[in-house]
């Protein structure tokens, strides 16, 4: 055996190993499993290596980046600082701009009757019946078929409708004003649980619910909101939502806390109603924990309407599904970029239901995910955690996914779990295409075909194709 | 230089250092600051080395441990599984057992008028005036002074009262039943914010609030609760509290969510009230986010009443303050173990207020901390985090402190941040004395002397002396 020579120490394996892993996390997982520290850099080939998208990204992140970033900053400012104020309700015919006489507004991008999915088809027929234009579903369907009733996307009339909602001119609408931006937006009164058209039902009870909303809920709520506004000024919808977020709402899938806050604000004015029908309204409100959803949607739409004016921005300012197509819009354009509506994943189903009985993702409520509510707010909601793995760590992961594709953070929607930082807002189409991460949308699920209503809820992952189309359109526009 | 000999490898310093630190965490902090792993075992000399307490602990953890642990398990079962049901309201004179005609019930342990602190003194005088026994504060005080009005601790009549509350026989009380245990408990209607006796005020407006509660709120709430009970059965108070906890309430310092849930449950029945005074009730409810506090307290008291029967247990089944003394009770005994009421720490003050203008800790609400609400539930409440350091990590620390002195965990009050484990319940007097950690109580703070009402809120740390006295009494009792 030889002894070691004197001199500099013999190089040896380091006593500690630390690793930076780039790319496939499988390697990182293996190292972490051996108990060593590892920083996992989740690098993927941008845009999945798609040459057309990569070329567009090179331009949109390169020479055009400064102009785009400036436009985006203005969109972030509008989405973050605009103050949507609830001022009252009125029949759609009286307030919704450009609404024709025999028109039904529906959720999602434009669609031909032949392509409408089963739950929305039923909801549209229910709305036609509630208007008194037809006595039964067949007759209602025939009117639409023959073009005697016109279908219009609600979004084309500053209106947003959740799930499979469809409404006619007599439906009462929430009116929300964004005074800084000079914009207004509308949403119908949430129809509540059970046998209701927005869940794809067209039974007599479902049609009756639309009549109740028109005859009882609309006028009485307007009286109460009017009194509240007279007493304390218009209601700051996003201030209510911000409180709700501190109370476990994501303000999309769950609006329990925000609903209760709004009801307590209205309470003295509800109790001041003289009509005995107030008791019926009370039963409806007590049983509807998604009552605030539509108010939040109208509020979001009033800010989106303002942001849509900022030409040259890469921030998504429209995201809606009709159960057949999923569409996004960019500022300065009326164009919808479409992809097939995806299934809803991370779902919890009612007994006996599953993916095979589920309709694809549907409704305008996905616009909430553009303003920092829903998926971006997951880290604030134990209820959402139940859908994405069960722990708050899972919910935080969902928020962090949204961080990667968003251009800003809300200054009003705060996450207690993340030391009160704001929720991600303003989805940048460049980041979506670059990373392949698309918005996560917390949503309900309807039966695909039998008109039995809701079958579950879950988190939908937006399809990347429509974002890619939007990116290419932006690139073409800025290159021309 | 000599070369190394062949043979076994030369012992050397380990390439990695990991440390288990026992005792003062300063050492651990220093090691952690050097980036090395450290497990900090927070060991202290038990009972601070107090020989009498150490000897008692040796017996209560030694030969008597099995019997005590069995009794404690039964107390945990009662506190955890009892179902407090809200059944209605009635005037104290009609339902509170053993209540004399000219008696005022007050918060906290028994106390002589001469020792009553300023805010409680004012509140008692306001209650005497509201009963119509005196026309002004001086006259009211003289009646008590002369013994023409009797002071009784509410706790001696199955009743609990928050902050500086005091009530006479005409005050309407919440009635909560624990049917498994055959116990009932009571609390007054929460007086709301502003110029109110429970905050130590005795102005005409404060007295008027007591009259409003008696003439308007009590009867109308009873009508609404009665209708709700008739329609859906008694209201499970802790089911509401459990939901509230998922919505950011600690259900002590903050009851916003639970209040709103209860109001929405009552909504149809409130709207069915025919009395035009319902509007006044509506204004009161809309402005009172601590409305649920007293209901939760009566519910907790109904379980405590059941747990008090379990002789030989070391679980605290009474914890109350009158602003002068802080008292605890153990099962199988009516004895109060007292210490001076402590100041409230971790406080946030209204402008111009501070420790020098603050009365000591006051009210019966500390019993919530025995059943898993308040301090033990801090990890569920962003609002509480604001008082103890600002982050949810600080709030979690508070819950973990309570873990160290509690014998069980709630199966209904779940903490989303801690993967939905239950809040700590059932404070074991042995652990309190052993560790020196006392219950943390989330509470409001009143002005010490000028009758101006609330000056802030914070987290009170219970004084260890009364737990020590209770421990020694238990040891004596079990040794005799």
Protein model, in words:
The structure is a homodimer of 480-residue chains. Chain A has 480 residues and is an alpha+beta fold. Chain A has a single domain (51-479), classed as Alpha-Beta Complex (v583 fold). Chain A is built from 15 helices and 18 strands. The first copy, chain A, has helices at residues 25-33, 51-61, 65-81, 92-95, 118-130, 137-145, 204-232, 237-245, 256-271, 278-286, 291-307, 382-388, 392-403, 429-435, 464-479; strands at 19-22, 38-41, 84-91, 103-106, 150-153, 166-167, 172-178, 183-188, 235-236, 319-322, 325-328, 337-340, 344-349, 362-363, 406-415, 421-427, 440-446, 454-461. In chain A, strand 17 (440-446) and strand 18 form a beta hairpin. In chain A, helix 5 packs across helix 6, helix 5 (118-130) crosses helix 7 and helix 14 packs across helix 15 (464-479). Chain A is globular, with a radius of gyration of 25 Å. The interface between A and B is large, with 42 and 42 residues.
Q: pLDDT average of chain A, as an integer? A: 92
How many strands appear in the DSSP assignment of chain A? 18
Q: Regions of chain A with pLDDT < 50 over 5+ consecutive residues?
A: 1-11, 23-28
Secondary-structure content class of chain A? alpha+beta
Stated plainly, the CATH topology of chain A is called: v583 fold
Compute the number of helices of chain A. Answer: 15
Helix content of chain A: 25-40%
| Order of neighbouring strands in the sheet with most strands of chain A | 8-7-3-9
Based on CA inertia axes, which overall geometry of chain A fits? globular
Largest interface: A-B, 42 and 42 residues
- CATH level-four homologous superfamily name of chain A: v583 domain like
- Our estimate of the beta-strand percent of chain A is 15-25%
The tally of domains of chain A stands at 1
Gross CATH architecture of chain A = Alpha-Beta Complex
Q: Give the oligomeric state.
A: homodimer
